[in-house]
Amino acid sequence: MSAAELILSLEKLLQLHKNLYQLTLQKTEILKSENIDALKELLKKEQMFVKAISQLEDERIKQTVAFLGREDELSMSACIEKATGSEQGKLKELEKDFKETIDSLKATNELNRELAKQALQLVSMTLDMLMPQETEFNYNKPANKPIEKQRRSLFDSQA
């Protein structure tokens, strides 16, 4: 088997990864603008890309096994070593493009993770500020209040 089918699958896979990277860039902007509805829609699109990548990856593995004639060490380096001529050059180029795209994707996902973490911390801090603080920290029985279901309220109704 020649590497042509494998190269075609790798090109499709690379394009899906580039599209996923574009979505992560959009996610960064959405996280900055705090638009929850847009984030939900983007996450649906992201899941579709992840599913498509997974399916295409399964196909690529089968093609790599057929190309290399073995089921172990199915790396790009092994494919490059076996390929000849222009196919070898094309595989080297694809390897470089994959590395750049995956590195960019990782960096953007890390940024998005940090933005989401900060947003959650802000929400948590805001809720803590809105909730009244308990003044007693001991185990005394409260006077004139029923024991069952004492709750801290978001708003002090006695004020």
TrEMBL record:
Taxonomic superkingdom: Bacteria
UniProt feature, compositional bias: Basic and acidic residues: 146-159
Signal peptide, first to last residue: none
Region feature (Disordered): 137-159
Keywords annotated in UniProt: Bacterial flagellum biogenesis, Cell projection, Cilium, Flagellum
Protein name according to UniProt: Flagellar biosynthesis/type III secretory pathway chaperone
Originating organism: Metabacillus niabensis
